Amino acid sequence: ASGGRLTLTGSSTIAPLILEVAKRFESQHPGVRINVQTGGSSRGINDVRLGLADIGMVSRALKASEKDLSAYLIARDGIGIITHKNNPVRNLTGDQIVGIYSGKIRNWEEVGGSNLPITVINKAEGRSTLELFLQHFSLRNSQINAQVVIGDNQQGIKSVSAIAGAIGYVSIGTAEYEENHGTPIKLISMEGEIPTSENVAKGRYQFSRQLNLVVRNTPVGLAKEFIAFAQSDAVKDIIEAQFFVAP
Amino acid sequence: MSWIAKGIVNRTDHRLSMMLAVLSAGAALLLTLIVLFLIKESWPFLSSRWHSGSWFDWLQYQGWYPQENRFGMAPMLLASLAVTLGALIVALPVGLASAIYLQFYANPKVARTFRLLLTLLAGVPSVVFGLWGLTRIVPLIALWQPPGASLLAAILVLSLMVLPTIALTSAAALASVSGELLHGGIALGMRRKTQILHIMLPAARSNIFGGVLLATARALGETMAVLMVAGNVVQFPAGLFDPVRVLTANIALEMSYAMGDHRASLFASGLLLTAMVWLLSWGSYRVTRNGREAGQYG
Amino acid sequence: MVDRLFGWLMSGCAALVVSLLLWVLGDVLIEGVAHFSWSFLFTEPEDSGRSGGIAPILVSTLWILSIALVTALPLGLGVAVWLSEFAAGRRRFSDIARVTLDILAGVPSIVYGLFGNAFFSIYLGLGFSLLSGGLTLALMILPVFVRTCESGLRAVNDEWRRGALALGMARSAAIWHILLPAARPAIGAGLVLGIGRATAETAALVFTSGYVDRMPESPLDSGRALAVHIYDLSMNVTGGDSAAYASALVLVVLIVLLNTLAQSLLEDWFKRRVFVS
Amino acid sequence: MRVRDLEVGYGDKTVLSQVSLDIYKGCITALIGPSGCGKTSFLSTLNRLTDHSDARVAGQILFDGQDLLRDSVDTLGLRRRIGMIFQRPNPFPLSIRRNLELPLKEHGIRDRQVRYRKIEKVLKDVGLWEEVSDRLDASALALSGGQQQRLCIARALVLEPEVLLMDEPCSALDPISSGIVEELILRLRGRYTVVIVTHNLAQARRVANYAGFFWMTERVGKLIEFGLCRHLFEAPRHALTAAYVSGARG
Amino acid sequence: MRVRDLEVGYGDKTVLSQVSLDIYKGCITALIGPSGCGKTSFLSTLNRLTDHSDARVAGQILFDGQDLLRDSVDTLGLRRRIGMIFQRPNPFPLSIRRNLELPLKEHGIRDRQVRYRKIEKVLKDVGLWEEVSDRLDASALALSGGQQQRLCIARALVLEPEVLLMDEPCSALDPISSGIVEELILRLRGRYTVVIVTHNLAQARRVANYAGFFWMTERVGKLIEFGLCRHLFEAPRHALTAAYVSGARG
Ligand SMILES: Nc1ncnc2c1ncn2[C@@H]1O[C@H](COP(=O)(O)OP(=O)(O)OP(=O)(O)O)[C@@H](O)[C@H]1O
Ligand SMILES: Nc1ncnc2c1ncn2[C@@H]1O[C@H](COP(=O)(O)OP(=O)(O)OP(=O)(O)O)[C@@H](O)[C@H]1O
Ligand SMILES: [Mg+2]
Ligand SMILES: [Mg+2]
After folding, report:
1. Which of C143, C169, E120, E201 has the fewest Cβ atoms within 10 angstroms?
2. Given C49, C222, C234, which is nearest A35 (Cβ)?
3. In whole angstroms, what separates CA D62 from the centre of its chain?
4. Which residues line ligand 2 (CB under 6 A)?
5. What CATH number is attached to the domain comprising E44?
């Protein structure tokens, strides 16, 4: 196919990835224009429903109320618990995490660390990572007692690296990159499961989310082609370069 | 003096007047559209509060858990006010002092450099301030009182952001005070401090006030920088070291994921912010007008 | 003695401010220069902006800014002239207009973004485009620009108005030849404010001009502004910090350059009007 | 010019009432009186400058046989024929040349050569030509007060008006400049009809043919006496005039 | 007060040179001369106001036996003893009371009662008491020009200075206010030493004991003649003086 335009809107987590995918797609299909816009997962869903976008980007599984759309998984994103690098704690159990997030455990001493008050970093209401976290630990957001609430991924990393007693949860690939580049954070294991991209890929780490492209009906034409391309092996290197895990 | 004549005689004038009136009406229409848009988008939220008979519930504390249909905005409203007020309390004296230094103490060369620095600072995007605050100020505070991301951090970063506005407008206000007053003070054998504090500042008061108003509006409306350093926990600010969430940050944090009532509630908070700015400018309009009419000074 | 102390206190405050300023600007400079190179300005971003340059982003930024200024300047000047020179007879109306402008000057920029998205992008069908972004920014800077110009015009010596009237000059001529040139410091200040606000704006542009970092070919293309780029790099792109600082450096320099340019153009234009017949 | 039963007010305050006087062609008429008695207001009605404030004007002013207070009067044309000079010199913030050129262009004189000739002529008339001919393109604001005022007079004269209204043209000037302007006014006598408001009684005596004395009674300005200048100063008919003329310090 | 060989310049332009004169205690000394000849500059050196511009001052001014141009002089104290009134009234934008209170506080008068008594006294001195006693807390800017100028005089008097310098104190006022201020100056004669600059020769004659005439020769101001007021006006020794006194229009 030559010519044609495609508009994608949605999750700011997926946007940088898709932008790179789109660039490669464009270079292979001269004349095609793919416009990627951000705004958030629900914006992606909204715009697809209204026909404002051809494809939506949603960084979670579709909910029951969203079954009018069909989702195509392009990548996974493992979510890992991170702390400040100098924190001696290496592993937390699910109960401990629930205890920390609900404010029952307030000092690292109580989970085998040094005497340091815990700073709980949580995601803002509506963010898909938060929903996943709540679901995973069967919590309600109103039960959480956070000291810092953040929006995007990088803000989480920056906050944890700035506060010695902080605990937060972010995308594993991102955290790995930052860890390797000297940012003072570290991923810790959960119930003994070690958070690495590799483990996510191999299914040895449960706590992960889906990165989906969604469309209204079954995709046709250019949209179909693009989704197929994004799911193909041809973009695997891009997915890895953006610190996500190919499905 | 008003130009408005009993009859506009000249044809060009007439045409110009019509054209400008149309232009202004167009601009006014567009701007009115913005307010209407805000109201329309927040209407689902407002009307559902209305029907449930709990019009002012959102002002009472019941927590901000939109997923659980609990929309307590009061803590954020208060946090917005606290952050703005705090930033003014820090920035006003320092900014005024800088203006005084600029106007009365600095030699021209130093003053020029200082001014340049201030304008440069005014050009730094707020994301950069946020980044700077998050990587420099927050850790400093965290050393002392974790988590660091707090009301205090927001106040410090914001006050730095509004400082140039206050300093530059106040310096301009001081510069526009007639030299005759200064000479009057000197001739009475007053010390420099008295001349500045008791004569120049009162004389420049209303213009300084205008700059402060501008700064207040900016502080109230600032989003990104505050979002990055304030901690964003929805709670009543009880102390300087508590994390808080302001209204603008709330919009930015949640807008991209919000749907339905949640989304409408965010628009409602936008409306609330606008109402606050309006109250502010209306109040100041009243104050300055009354001041002018009564010719009343301290 | 007290006097000396007071002087020291003032200078001390100024020194404090300067050192804080140097801290912020120094950070931007040091971190920015480390990543900066001339090719940074002339190449396309790669790898989500972590490497490569910002050429298309600079172009988009300039597009958006020009659209915003080209729209807001004449419109704003027109409204300001009308408010200060023609609406005075309708006291109530102009008071309302003034208060409305003050309110709008305080509406958070993200709200402008949402409005721009709903009105320009969707309702007028301009989509995600530099045009939508520019028009949204034009609306955003309009209130402040109008208010500064209007107060500048008001401050113009009334004796000149009276002089022009007594010479039987049409008002349009007096405005064009005398009042506008005389109000130029205020117009310049409004311009600087507008440029600063428009160039550093993030929130209003995410929903209007968009996120695409391709080189725009027409104002109807979507394009990413520098401030949006900085925000994305620092909040969304892992390992994007150094590129973010370099972009911030470019942004600060850009604003200073634009301000100087705008001021000198303005001066030049008025000077020609004032002295050459 | 015949003024009949003129009444001027601002809002619901009347500041001037029952003013009737004749202004004779080619003569200089001086108006004197204490501050606030409505002299400036009176002058402003004569060229309809009152249109541009919230002033109410009633009565008749006959000029060339028609009432210039009627709405249908072309005020721009009127003001070309009746020039005005203000108390404080108000040259436009433009070059000297532009100050004089602007009104000419405004009144449709397209030919640059014609304009330049007119400009040279009026500058010579007001005695500024020698002083400024080498810097016509310099800003008018750089001139001294006296020069500025003469430039303003030149600016009014360049339109070749028939009547010249002057509102305390010398009171913001030092005595030497003031002397020069006064001489200039004297030279205009005969060629122009001049109405001059002044606080300086000596000046009024020196320059005027006719004089009028305004006074405030019950907060409303009235024309107390009008007549030949000599008569008014030397043999005032009214006690108030006598008191003012002899007592007021100038 | 004895002035000897005073020279004043700005940058590298000398505006006043070789000025020597004596100012006698309790007398009123009037200084006259055309605009720009350095009268204001001269007055400013007398209370060291020149310190606050880029003026160069050379020469000697002996006051109470010591040279007040020396660096070691306490200028704040000096200005308390030598007050100054400017051409345009410059009341501070504060209430009437604050205008008078501020200098008192500044010079260490702590007791509120004492201050109030002094304020009442000077307001009576300048004849403002009846006019403003009921609105002492209203803004001074709401006063009329003449009242403002009298307030400024009161403000200078409240410090009980020995010398009062006045720079054209009436020229911005209408004749009635001007008359009131002039009477006030006359009432000060004997109690204060007054140096007054005026363009109004008649006024100088009416109020002054001594008079000095400044004139510009080769762009530098000089004191041409100084002496008893009567002599200077009626029997000037210098041709320039004679010409100015008879010719200048005021
Ligand atoms: N635009 C105006 N609005 C309301 N009142 C005005 C206006 N202009 C003048 N007045 C009032 O009208 C009265 C007469 O004023 P006018 O200026 O004509 O007096 P004047 O004789 O020229 O005084 P002066 O000698 O001080 O110039 C004054 O009481 C003044 O306050
Ligand atoms: N601050 C200054 N800097 C430079 N030159 C000055 C300054 N002040 C006064 N001059 C110049 O000094 C000369 C004398 O000025 P001064 O004001 O003393 O004259 P004056 O006799 O008071 O005049 P006038 O009667 O107009 O008040 C003038 O040529 C003036 O331009
Ligand atoms: Mg008048
Ligand atoms: Mg002087």
Report:
1. E120
2. C222
3. 18
4. D 174; E 10, 15, 35-41, 53
5. 3.40.50.300
Complex ipTM > 0.90: no
For each of the domains in chain C, give its residue range(s) and CATH number, in order of start. 36-271 (1.10.3720.10)
Query: Min CA distance, C227 vs chain B (Å)?
Result: 7
Nearest to C218 by CA among A33, A19, A30: A33
Residue B24 · residue D91 · CB < 8 Å? no
Distances (CA, A) of E237 to D163, E192, E222, E225, E244: 45, 28, 15, 8, 12
Q: Where are the alpha helices (DSSP H) in D47-199?
A: 75-81, 96-106, 112-125, 129-132, 145-157, 175-188
Q: pLDDT, tens digit, for every residue of D146-199?
A: 888 889 999 998 988 999 999 888 877 766 777 888 888 888 888 899 999 987
Domain count along chain E? 1
- Residue A113 CA to its chain's centroid (Å): 28
Spans of all domains in chain B: 3-53, 72-297
pLDDT above 90: residue B8: no
Q: Tell me the C-alpha distance between B102 and C49, whole Å.
A: 41
Which residue among B183, B189, B198 sits closest to E76, beta carbon to beta carbon? B189
The answer to whether residue D110 sits within a structural domain is no
Cβ contact B252:B191 at 8 Å = no
Its domain, for residue E207, covers 2-88+164-245
Task: List alpha helices for chain B, DSSP H.
Answer: 11-51, 74-100, 108-122, 126-132, 138-144, 151-175, 179-187, 192-194, 201-221, 224-229, 247-254, 260-294
Query: Which site among B61, B65, B228, B257 would you substitute to test the A interface, given the most A Cβ atoms closer than 10 Å to its Cβ?
Result: B257
Name the CATH superfamily for B72-297. MetI-like (1.10.3720.10)
Closest chain E C-alpha to D203 CA, distance in angstroms: 8
**Contact residues for E76 (Cβ-Cβ < 8 A; gap 6+):** B189, B190, B191
Beta-bridged to residue C46, according to DSSP, are C51
**Sign (positive/negative) of CA torsion B185, B189, B192, B197?**
negative
At residue A1, the pLDDT reads 42
Please report how many Cα atoms fall inside a 13 Å half-sphere around the Cα of residue C247, on the Cβ side.
34
